[in-house]
Amino acid sequence: MEIREIFAHNLRALRKTKGLSQEELAHEAGLDRTYISSLERQIYGASIDVVDRIAKGLAVEAADLLRCPEAEATK
Amino acid sequence: MEIREIFAHNLRALRKTKGLSQEELAHEAGLDRTYISSLERQIYGASIDVVDRIAKGLAVEAADLLRCPEAEATK
């Protein structure tokens, strides 16, 4: 999996696990809803500053957003 | 720790563990040596695309570069 795909997958999965809409997460992270949407569609390569803001909005570690789901699945 | 500090710390620590100079890592990752140096000095917020290239150059997972060292230390 490409890094943008991994990030988009984890972002969406963790957001849904936390029961947050894109709009609610955007508000928590101080970002625009359209930007969250773009990241989930792999349009941009987020900076680590953005990854950190989103991680804080989701109450997870930044590293959790870049962890390869395939690696987890094969454990 | 701020995310840039975490990334810079892990980048430098993993690079040294692998016995690579900034120049050697830059070559492996297809980046400029001065850019690696800037990241270790927390000048820029790297994009996840850059984090991924560096991770591949270091033969680690991208997530390893954003993992908080304090959290590891208290385990």
TrEMBL record, chains A, B:
<dbReference type="GO" id="GO:0003700">
    <property type="term" value="F:DNA-binding transcription factor activity"/>
</dbReference>
<dbReference type="GO" id="GO:0005829">
    <property type="term" value="C:cytosol"/>
</dbReference>
<dbReference type="InterPro" id="IPR050807">
    <property type="entry name" value="TransReg_Diox_bact_type"/>
</dbReference>
<keyword id="KW-0805">Transcription regulation</keyword>
<dbReference type="GO" id="GO:0003677">
    <property type="term" value="F:DNA binding"/>
</dbReference>
<keyword id="KW-0804">Transcription</keyword>
<dbReference type="Pfam" id="PF01381">
    <property type="entry name" value="HTH_3"/>
</dbReference>
<dbReference type="InterPro" id="IPR001387">
    <property type="entry name" value="Cro/C1-type_HTH"/>
</dbReference>
<keyword id="KW-0238">DNA-binding</keyword>
<protein>
    <submittedName>
        <fullName>XRE family transcriptional regulator</fullName>
    </submittedName>
</protein>
<feature type="domain" description="HTH cro/C1-type">
    <location>
        <begin position="11"/>
        <end position="65"/>
    </location>
</feature>
<dbReference type="InterPro" id="IPR010982">
    <property type="entry name" value="Lambda_DNA-bd_dom_sf"/>
</dbReference>
